């Protein structure tokens, strides 16, 4: 059964809420506020595609963080298939962090 527009928006918002509960182990800020999440797309079928990056290609959690993101988003009832795509284009920089993240890290 296809999701309507409201259900798709709710699934997108719920996905962002889950992303805000996942923290980079080296930085005490969630991956969404860090600017590691570039895009969240939700289909009418309830599929979720997350385009994200890591702080660096040599990030110590390069193997585990995408799996954690996928597993946690799959726990949302409406989410059917969840795909996490890692990209390094554009490369992550501190400028991608939200004001909240910069405040948390004392970068003002």
UniProtKB/TrEMBL annotation:
MIP18 family-like domain spans which residues? 17-86
Q: Which InterPro entries does its entry note?
A: Fe-S_Maturation_MIP18, FSCA_dom_sf, MIP18-like, SUF_FeS_clus_asmbl-assoc
Output the NCBIfam families linked to this UniProt entry: SUF_assoc
Which PANTHER family does the annotation name?
Answer: FE-S PROTEIN MATURATION AUXILIARY FACTOR YITW
What is this protein's record name?
Answer: SUF system Fe-S cluster assembly protein
> Which source organism?
Phaeocystidibacter marisrubri
Show the taxonomic lineage.
Answer: Bacteria, Pseudomonadati, Bacteroidota, Flavobacteriia, Flavobacteriales
């Amino acid at each position: 059964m296809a999701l309507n527009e409201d259900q798709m928006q709710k699934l997108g918002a719920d996905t962002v809420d889950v992303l805000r509960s996942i923290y980079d182990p080296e930085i005490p800020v969630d991956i969404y506020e860090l600017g590691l999440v570039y895009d969240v797309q939700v289909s009418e079928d309830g599929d979720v595609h997350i385009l994200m990056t890591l702080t660096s290609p040599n990030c110590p959690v390069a193997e585990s963080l995408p799996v954690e993101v996928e597993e946690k988003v799959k726990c949302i009832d409406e989410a059917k298939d969840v795909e996490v795509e890692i990209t390094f284009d554009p490369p992550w920089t501190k400028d991608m962090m939200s004001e909240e993240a910069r405040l948390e890290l004392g970068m003002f």
